[in-house]
């Protein structure tokens, strides 16, 4: 059982990983999984930088690919005492020395990730995509680094080649409303490229009037849209214009992330009044929150008109540790979830648009207690509502099983969003989708083994979840 | 695996459905289930219309029996775009054409229910009660409709025959305090009927002084009870009188459903003052809520005196979608749960009556996070408190397992209510109780297989749960 | 299956209890468990009275050992109608008659504990420590009582002998800041004793300025510490002094239990003002809460300086049933959990000290919804934060499994506290630690069986959890 340093532990993926251990159930799960494992990937929400695919330059080094930009990876190292600096966070491109040092830190702390999906994804990437055969450790770090660096220099490891190899049929990025989407346009115009890469409209910051810099942001929104954003009516027109611009570049959804999902409307005059105060920097925090809720309702109204699927990722305290945020920027591992609440906050929206034939509203949460209590009951009545797949901290084997267990009995499978990888780590895309397919196969197999579902229906459902369902929800 | 339209998929119930899949555990579960499967059904809380049993007229059609009045069924069709009108909701008796169309809509969307208890119940009813042998679908809808309609015309499918066949030893209905209970009286007086059908006192609306129509309601309460309900003291006397009336007609429990379960008392003069304001229509919402909490405490006091078991179903936003409520009425699928809270809200009640030998208080929730956090700890100390079985959205196999897992370690089995079907769908009663017995057998079998409980004790517990326990809790 | 009264059911412990039932998974779990089952016990937080070990007098009787002081045991009897008086609660030493009667009540209600960890612990203690071979019941109560009483009179059942037999390498008690720790000192000075028994600093009451008696408490704190506690600055100095005193007697941690874990600071002048008002008995409840949160932040600051590990047990309504508290005192079974909330309340503390190299902050909760939502994300970023093991109502097999499932995917194993028994029931210590080891072996075995972890790493982790981890977190 002890690890021989001269003979490092091997790294092997078992074909039945994540499937049920009971042999009778596993046999069913294998059959279901075989039917979906090689189907193309639809990735309707994520954070990949489209320039990577336009420019198609090789990934710089293993640290850039696996460590530095991925807060799933860096946060647990940080928790164990590794400074974010040492991992290259917030420092731009790293020297070879720094990149190797960051990679070595990951390998030296490989044990930290035992039992986590990060470990599962990293192992799958290393073995399946890069052909690594030994377990990362202090002893093997440099050899693996060299192996990976060599692979990254090959043409078949450049972004476009991997995109094809991953069988991604559609990839959505996440973009600022003022983005000119030139990269997306260039990709469409590129005759050597045929992949589908579409933008997603993400207007969060333009709804948060209490944040520093908001007046500047909406002023820029006015410039870009050609509307007068010194008043609320102009803000609405500007948003509508930018959504149309996004739609003309292929967007099919708009994403909204706020600490709560309140949608209480204001009187029009009150909305104007607060908006003016916010532009002048005199709105109170309470007023700014009220305005944001009013604006979110307005965004839902726009979705009923222009058809962008509306996704809400609610309930996170962003940048919990201000010193780290100040030094390393956002998305550095200390966004912490809050209690969720949907039933009352969404009521104004749903009373107006919950049965609107043109609205698709996908609700994501990090509060598991809302799965059976609020999300499934809402999606089980309102034609517009879908339960989003487990997200972020909950995008993990046991959490996904709990989610299926908590929501299926109220909404079945048809009122769910399909899998969303929501990642900025490009090489985890195939691995995350594969994990989801394995888990759904296992869940469905358990229903079959308990005689709650016939296998032909389980098979149909397994396929539906990764094909028709995301196409319907995200209008792809 | 593809369905041959000329040879529709068969509909068969496996004898081991819902039992553990591990063969060693399943064998234990089978033995436990065998000991309880045929025991009579005690149904201490539900919504069956007693007139059905008094008049004993055949069920009108399959839509009335399985679709139109059952919001468990209609809500998921609605979510998938089927208008409630098309299902006959809120339209009174349907024509044969409309009934057939509603039934066909259910069959065409049979896949929506995969993995849900609704599907499980419907399949069990169709096979076990009605002898259907093919899976519902667009292709088989009409043939099944005809099959069911033919069965419904037979004497053995009339309500009284089914009541006997289901082995229901006691059935509680849910009734308005002003109800004259003539139907219950007529059943008792009927020499050709020997079943036990008892009313339940459900005074919710009389405690909600902020609701439109409340002054009219309490005025009527005064008329029916012969008390002067223009003041609070008279309201109390009227309630006491009507409870006595119910008790004289066999009632053993009173049911209370409000958005919260606050029980903070008011000063007597303050209660009078708010009551008067409410009668005059000038009470504020906050005053009305305070009055309701005071009244709920008063109802607990009455229970200690007259012995009616007090059940609380707390934490639901009723009629979430007002447009649907306005058009189709209440109980049409859009009551949505809220966060639960019991520890502090119930404290005034429990400090007064929590150890009173005559009080039995059963707490139901739709917020799973309260299972281990509040309900089990309360029931694990207060002699008056019992944890209610999973209810509504949680009356489902996985949710029931989670409930047992979350509460048993704190309260064992003795502080639980026994199974409550809480249904208006008559033919689901045996099926729901059977589901519960299977799940409890599985849970107990797992305890045995993990060597946490000897099998003789598991067997005794399995029987106790469906016999002595509901008799004790509901004083039957 | 019926119990023959002349041949009582036997009481036997299965060697595989609590391990997974699937034979392939169980085989792995057995190997992991074998590696940890006999390792010494580290008990870094609990409520054993150290005088017991100093005086080493035999346990008085089975009631004192198993029933009367243990609210885990008495509460469920109370819920079932047994008065706390009849169990000897709050009555000091019992006569032999009273002790026997209390024991008999437990045996007569043995069925109440089916499925609970209390039952599991009691059975393990009776069999493994005391050699009981028949199941407790009305029929066997007296014989078992006599058997136990006989054992208790033997030298090898005296506290020190049991301490050795249990292989306890370190045992922390819980102590008032004004305690002179003479007992701990005497144990250290005793040449016939070599066990490690250390105090824990538990200042709760000194932070709750709204509680009756608080001015008296802080006055006494002033006397004991030699500081002037008539002002806040003196209170701080007094606390610092007492912490040093505890550290000089071996303490390595300070424990804090409040209804919430707010840490919002006050302006220094405002803290002084409220403190003065509180000493004068004129502070409002809101002011007292604000002061307590300020004080809790101050305690964290002290921990960064003196190195005491800070544990927080938050979110319990103590003495929920005031009549019982008045009659029987605290800790008599009616402390009831509240909703948990960590993300925002702890933010002031974590912004200041969350990355401080000298702080170790262990967070315990009774609200399972916070496991994946708040505790794991916090511990997954902040180097100071650890997720506390399931506590109290959650110190139970299924709850521990849910905890591992909910937190491991975010924090792995390294950010957890190791097992804490937190008990005043001395003989449950080995049994609780053994339960935890079995459950962790089962959890790790499942990861191995699902091919999410190699067995050599699972083995290393199983050992780490019970050796290095608690040593690191509690600086032992």
TrEMBL record, chains A, B, C:
One record GO biological process: D-galacturonate catabolic process
EC number: 5.3.1.12
Keyword Isomerase: yes
Enzyme class: isomerase
Catalytic activity line of the entry: D-glucuronate = D-fructuronate
Keyword Isomerase: yes
Lineage: Bacteria, Bacillati, Actinomycetota, Actinomycetes, Micrococcales
Similarity remark: Belongs to the metallo-dependent hydrolases superfamily. Uronate isomerase family.
Species the sequence originates in: Demequina lutea
One term of GO molecular function: glucuronate isomerase activity
InterPro entries named in the record: Metal_Hydrolase, Uronate_isomerase
This protein's UniProt keywords: Isomerase
PANTHER family: URONATE ISOMERASE (PTHR30068)
Pathway(s) this gene product operates in, as recorded in its UniProt entry: Carbohydrate metabolism; pentose and glucuronate interconversion
The protein, known as: Uronate isomerase
């Amino acid at each position: 059982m002890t690890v021989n340093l001269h003979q490092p532990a091997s790294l092997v993926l078992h074909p039945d990983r994540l499937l049920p251990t009971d042999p009778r159930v596993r046999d069913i799960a294998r059959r279901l999984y075989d039917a979906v494992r090689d189907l193309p990937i639809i990735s309707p929400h994520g954070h990949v930088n489209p320039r990577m695919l336009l420019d198609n330059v090789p990934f710089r080094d293993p640290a850039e690919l696996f460590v530095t930009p991925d807060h799933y990876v860096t946060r647990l190292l940080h928790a164990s005492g590794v400074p974010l600096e040492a991992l290259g966070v917030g420092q731009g491109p790293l020297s070879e020395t720094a990149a190797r040092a960051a990679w070595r830190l990951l390998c030296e702390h490989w044990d930290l990730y035992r039992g986590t999906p990060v470990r599962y994804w990293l192992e799958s990437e290393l073995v399946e995509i890069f052909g690594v055969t030994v377990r990362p450790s202090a002893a093997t770090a440099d050899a693996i680094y060299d192996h990976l660096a060599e692979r990254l220099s090959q043409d078949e490891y450049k972004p476009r080649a991997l995109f094809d190899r991953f069988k991604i049929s559609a990839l959505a990025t996440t973009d600022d409303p003022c983005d000119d989407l030139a990269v997306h346009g260039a990709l469409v115009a590129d005759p050597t490229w045929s992949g589908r890469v579409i933008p997603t409209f993400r207007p969060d910051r333009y709804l948060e009037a209490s944040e520093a810099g908001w007046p500047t942001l909406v002023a820029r929104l006015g410039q870009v849209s050609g509307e007068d954003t010194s008043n609320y009516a102009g803000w609405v027109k500007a948003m509508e214009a930018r959504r149309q611009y996004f739609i003309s570049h292929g967007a099919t959804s708009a994403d909204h992330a706020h600490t709560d999902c309140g949608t209480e409307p204001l009187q029009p005059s009150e909305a104007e009044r607060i908006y003016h105060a916010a532009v002048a920097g005199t709105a109170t925090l309470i007023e700014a929150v009220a305005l944001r809720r009013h604006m979110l309702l307005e965004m839902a109204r726009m979705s009923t008109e222009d058809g962008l699927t509306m996704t809400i990722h609610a309930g996170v305290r962003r940048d919990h540790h201000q010193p780290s945020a100040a030094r390393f920027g956002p998305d550095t591992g200390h966004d912490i979830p809050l209690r969720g609440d949907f039933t009352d906050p969404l009521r104004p929206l749903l009373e107006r648009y919950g049965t609107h034939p043109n609205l698709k509203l996908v609700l994501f949460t990090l509060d598991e207690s809302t799965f059976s209590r609020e999300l499934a009951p809402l999606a089980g009545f309102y034609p517009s509502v879908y339960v989003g797949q487990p997200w972020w901290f909950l995008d993990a084997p046991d959490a996904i099983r709990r989610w299926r267990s908590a929501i299926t009995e109220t909404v079945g499978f048809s009122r769910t969003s399909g899998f969303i990888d929501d990642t900025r780590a490009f090489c985890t895309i195939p691995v995350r989708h594969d994990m989801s397919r394995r888990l759904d196969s296992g869940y469905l197999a358990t229903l079959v083994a308990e005689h709650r579902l016939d296998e032909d229906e389980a098979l149909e459902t397994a396929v539906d979840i990764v094909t028709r369902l995301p196409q319907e929800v995200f209008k792809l």
